[in-house]
Amino acid sequence: MYQIITDFTIGDITQGLEGADFSFEARNSSGVSGFDSAGFIANLTMPYGINQTFTWNNIHHLLINRLELNRAGIEVYPYSEGDPTGTPLLELRLIFRSRIQFVLWQSAINDLVPESFFNRAFAPNRWLAAQNAPPELGLTTPYVAGEFVPFVPIRPDGCVRRIITDRTIAEINAFDVGGTDFNLSLKVGTTELSFSRLNFQLSEQPLSSYLIMQEDHLWITPYTNPQSGEQHLAFETFGQDLKLYKSSADAANSFLTNFVDIAFDPARIVQQPNNEFVVTGVQDFCANPDDPANPNNPPADPAPTDPDPTDPDPTDPEENMSALQALQQIWDKTQSFYGVCFVDELSAGEIEDVTDWCQSHYRLPFFVVTDSADAIAATTAINQLNYYTHVTTYHQSHDEVGAIMGMALDQKFDQPNGIKTLKFKTLVGTPPTPIGETLAGQLDAAGVNYYTSYGNPDAPVLMYSQGFAGAGKFADFVMGLHWLRNDAQVEVFNTFRINPKVSQTEGGMSVLKAGVARSCMRGVDNGLIAGGQWNGQPLGTVNTGDFLPTGYYIYADKIRNQTQQVRETRQAQPISVLVKGAGALHGADISFIGEQ
Amino acid sequence: MTLPIQLVVGANILLNPPLLGTDPFGRGLVIGSSTNARTAPNELFGIYRSPEAVKEDYGVEAPEYRIALRYFAQIPRPKSLMIATVALIPSPPPPIGV
């Protein structure tokens, strides 16, 4: 972060001007086309009555709003080393601040702007001779250089809201073949913005060294992924709501590719009821003052020497891995588990990563979050992405994750009616969480589970609620489908193994379908599947609204319909199975109608 | 001197090939980073059938033991628990670029 603070206060700078103009320029050396210089002319009159000449970058606006970000990536605002809100405005100095190195210099004085801002704002000893300036700036007049200071976020809590692209800058650039353009719609707070390819200037600059763009309280800056070391783009605001989207009009524009399509995974782009396609995954990030990995913090004391170098060293980032990496490492060695939990409480981002992985690997993670607001935020974020494979519980003690996992995994798929719901179940040895009705409603709405007491306070019943697995699904049904998938997979595999050969004929297909049917019949026995009306999409001879008496229907196209090309790869026809879950009752309304 | 009747009547024993079983849906995995007494070749993970076995490897102070105690306390009692040990510290996201 670079900054320049004026030597004199706003009152001194503006005193006695009475309508005379002055001008100055801020310039940086990035050479980004269109952003390399910006001047503004201010018309200073009475002490508070500072008028502006230009619509953007005006000191009047600056002094009223106490914050102004201009197009050169330099922000200007009133500054005091003490409490700025307690200091009269005229006694404040001005600060110019940017993440890029920059200088202030005096543009040509002419009849329209006869007064020099610098003569009024800076003492003579602040001036540097023009020949000392970096030659690329091409300065011919004295200037004031920006001083490097450790990065201090502008918001007092040091937090930003941000979106990081899934694709790297190189991948985004690779899309730009033959000058293809793209566009992007953005909303920062209530301000709507729109950018095109030219705003980003991705391919022409060494992006590692400076930010790309700063406008309307928005930073677009390179972000280095700590694991891969690859550069992505981060869109950041200082706490304002941030939305990247394409409108239905953008989506219909076949001439311009939309930035969200080339920079983000399709799973992150969610269609809204108003037909906007919005990028999900906005993070709130606060710089942790105690984090030694944060280069903005002063260097930490040297770490004590590790007595045994083979021990995992928690202070060495080289030796640590993320929760997801840990899970992947174990998966490489063994797949002999189903439930997953972690000894440490995970952050919202790690919960999302682990859930994503588990959903695609048919495993069920259990999370306990010890703060109700964090639990609601984390679950809401991942449920919006339609993940239905996680059991997240709000409880004051993280260790209870063991109790929840032990209770939930007790599903006896090989026994008649061996499946149980999680709701109404007691956790042995686990204290309840005191939860009011309001909080319970919020937790239910967000899909967070909890363990609390119900009923008469003198003799309460402790039970687990509601058994959610995310995105409106219940954990017992998700576990059941995971089991059914694996059981049918094993059946078909074993069919291949027992038989000398399964012919590529209708007879062979029947043998495979019989294996799937055995799994489904076990599903009926254990209570996962039951007969009912099929309300989903039609398949084979089953139409929407048909009654499935067995609760399942297995369909594969005729083998004679295979193309010769597919036939020569010895693949069976794809088998589709409709499964009607038996479901479970979680509540009831009972009315008593009396008569005498 | 006699000849084996195998020369006249061939008879062989054929066993069905071993078949695959389903995944262990009743087994949970706990991922932690506490030091433990397991040695190669089971350094990365171990399968435990009682909290006492966990105590032997991890001691009573480790969070792995506290979680295992609660896991095995449930009724019906779960049959087994896998505990894996990695160099794991959930880390906060990296700082924004300067």
What's a quick, concise take on this entry?
The complex is a heterodimer of chains A (596) and B (98). Chain A is an alpha+beta fold and 596 residues long. In chain A, 24% of the residues lie in helices and 25% in strands.
Q: What is the element layout, followed by pairings?
A:
The complex is a heterodimer of chains A (596) and B (98).
Chain A: E1 2-9, H1 10-14, E2 21-28, E3 37-43, E4 51-52, H2 59-65, E5 68-69, E6 74-79, E7 93-98, E8 102-105, E9 115-116, H3 117-121, E10 143-145, E11 147-148, E12 159-164, H4 169-175, E13 182-188, E14 191-196, H5 197-200, E15 213-215, E16 218-224, E17 231-237, E18 242-246, H6 248-252, E19 257-258, H7 259-263, E20 269-271, E21 277-279, E22 283-286, H8 323-333, E23 339-342, H9 348-361, E24 364-369, H10 372-384, E25 391-394, H11 401-408, H12 437-446, E26 449-454, E27 461-465, E28 468-470, E29 473-474, H13 475-498, H14 506-526, E30 532-533, E31 547-548, E32 552-556, H15 564-567, E33 575-579
Chain B: E1 28-32, E2 45-48, H1 51-58, H2 63-72, E3 81-85
Parallel strand pairs in B: 1-3
Antiparallel strand pairs in B: 2-3
Helix pairs in contact in B: 1-2
